TrEMBL record:
Residues 1-69 form the HTH gntR-type domain. GO terms for molecular function: DNA binding; DNA-binding transcription factor activity; pyridoxal phosphate binding. In the C-terminal section; belongs to the class-I pyridoxal-phosphate-dependent aminotransferase family. Keywords: DNA-binding, Pyridoxal phosphate, Transcription, Transcription regulation. It comes from Inquilinus limosus MP06. CDD domains: WHTH_GntR (cd07377). Gene3D superfamilies: Type I PLP-dependent aspartate aminotransferase-like (Major domain), Winged helix-like DNA-binding domain superfamily/Winged helix DNA-binding domain. PROSITE patterns: HTH_GNTR. Pfam families: Aminotran_1_2, GntR. The keyword rRNA processing does not apply. This is GntR family transcriptional regulator.
Amino acid sequence: MEDFRRIADAVAGEIASGQLRPGDRLPPQRDFAYRRGIAASTAARVYAELTRRGLVSGEVGRGTFVRAMEAVPASVLAEPWQAPINLESSFPILPGQPAALAQGLQALMRPDALGLALRAVPAAGTQAAQAVASSFLVQAGWSSEPARVLFTGNGRQAIAAALSALAPVGGRVGVEALTYPVIKGIAARLGIALVPIAMDAEGLRPDALEAAHHAAPLRGVYLQPVLHNPLGLSMSPGRRADLAALLQRLDLVAVEDRVFSFLAGEAPLATLAPDHVIVVDSLSKRLAPGLT
C-alpha cells in the first residue's frame, strides 16, 4: 500500500504548481480513493494530512476545499540589485491594522446588515451613503456636497469613468511624465492618447501643461498633486494655486487622484477650482487593498 504521505505530497505539489487553485473542491474521499487505486481509509489519512498542513479545509455538507496560500514574506533588500522594482502596487501598512479592521467588520456579521452591504447600488448610491461618504472625505476643511458624490467598485473604475466622460476615443489627456502605471492600461482600453507633461521637484509643471494644451487641445489632465505614486512628491500651496488658476483659465478639467492624500492631510486641488476638478478617492487604500 502506498504511503499516504507520498500521496499527500503529490496533492500538495499540485496545489503549489497551480493545478489545484484556492477554492477548488477536492473529490469526495471515496472517489479520490477509487481514482488513486487506494483504500478509503488511506484517502481519509491523505485528507487529514493535507488539513494538518493547512492546505485544505473541510466544510460539513459541502466537501473539502483548497485553502488560499499564505503570502511568502519577502524583503526588497533580499532581491538582486539588478532586478526591476515594481512600483505599481503601493499601500500603507499600519501596526494593528488587521485587529482594527476585524473589529470594524463585526457590525457586518448580522444577516440584515450583510444583506444591505452586498446589495448592488447605482452610481449615486443612496442619500445616506452619499452623506456618509461626504463626511468621510472631509480633509483640511474641504468636503464635497453629498449630492455630488458618486460610487464605483474601486479607484481604477472611478478613474476610467472620469476619463471616459472627459475624452472621446482618440482624445488627448495630459498626465505627469512619470505617472501611475495603471493609467496607461486604462487609457489604452478607452482609446485615449496620453500626453506626458514635464515635472519638477513639485510634480507637474503648469507651464508645461499650458504648452501641451496650446500645441494640441487636451480634453483633461490626470494627476496626483499629493503623495504622487510612485515618486512621493507633493505640490506646494503655491504650485496648487497656480495650477488651479490655469485650469480655470484654459477651462480644462483635472482628474485628481487622492488615494494616498489622507496620509498628508492636505486640501485637494478641488478646494481652489471646484468646477474644474474631479476628485477620486478610495476606501480600500485606507483600510486594506484586499477589499478592492
